[in-house]
Amino acid sequence: MRARTVPSLSDGNFPPSPGSAATGARARASEKPVNEFLQRDVPGIGKHVHRLGLACNYGIDAKGFSAGLERGLNYVMYTSMRTGKVRSAVAEGLKKNREGLVLASGTTLGYFGGSVRRGVESVLKTLGTDYIDVFHLFWVGVGAAYSDATREAMVKLKEEGKIRRFGISIHDRPRAATLAQDEALDLLMIRYNAAHPGAERDIFPHLPAKEAGDRRTAVVAYTATSWKKLIKRPSSWEEPVPTAADCYRFCLSSPHVDVVLTGPSSEKELEENIEGVGRGPLSAEEDAFMRRFGDRVK
Questions:
Q1: CA 19 to chain centre
Q2: Mean per-residue pLDDT for 81-102?
Q3: Per-residue pLDDT tens over the stretch 218-272
Q4: Are 277 and 248 in contact (CB under 8 A)?
């Protein structure tokens, strides 16, 4: 996903905002070296990850996907929908470097334990792999149910080694904070962006800790551009417009976010996003600008 209008915030060509909404934790994040900003060991995932995750269902082709792996991306979100162009490349990438990649997937409809199991086994067969790193119940409360049956199915699949981690995607923030207390749940995939930063209030303060200083529940952010609203110029807006990479940097500047998903439609967009996040965390001024722009477009 790419902004139709530049410049990037990182070029410094934007008016400073009075004050800053950045928390102390976000401000401290801006002082980290870029390599620490982009790389992280995530207990809730169980592997070392590049924090820019690659979603395969927005048009990226096999060549673009392979280029992303060559650039160091290793968190791969694969679904059964709209991934035909990249399916063979995902399978080949897993074959070459299974332990180095994080394969995330999920079931389109997850209301029953049987549908969860069928979803897992379908992905394993399609990609020719032995396990899925993170399997989700997608859109809990709408397209899936977090019930005794689906939870038990996930636990059983973990015991069988077919999945290593159990995650959910969910828009209901208070419920997400409650479900995060369940020890069976390893990961939350949530909406978080400059137009919808409510997770800072409703989810992040309530994440349980596994041990001192180490969160158990991993957090993956998606809809970073708010379905492109954050990279389009609003009417009568005379200031710069963020790029997609600025939106990803906003998410990754939160210490609570482990991975943010990018859904490029082309290799060119992916390269722009990778280069952009390489600029590192947002400064306090950039953070304040992003929040002001987010208030304008939401």
A1: 28
A2: 94
A3: 999 999 999 999 999 999 999 999 999 999 999 999 999 999 999 999 999 999 9
A4: yes
Q: Please give the domain boundaries of the chain with CATH numbers for all domains.
A: 9-297 (3.20.20.100)
What mean pLDDT do residues 131-156 have? 95
Predicted confidence (pLDDT) at residue 21 exceeds the cutoff of 80: no
Q: Is the pLDDT of residue 1 over 50?
A: no
Residues with Cβ within 8 Å of 107's Cβ and at least 6 positions away in sequence, in order, are 115, 116, 118, 119, 120, 135, 136, 137, 138, 144
The encoded tokens of residue 162 equal: 């077919």
Burial of 161 (0-12, 13-18, 19+ CB in 10 A): exposed
- pLDDT range class, residue 5, cuts 50, 70, 90: very low
Q: How confident is the model at residue 24 (pLDDT cuts 50, 70, 90)?
A: low
CB-CB neighbours of 19 under 10 Å: 9
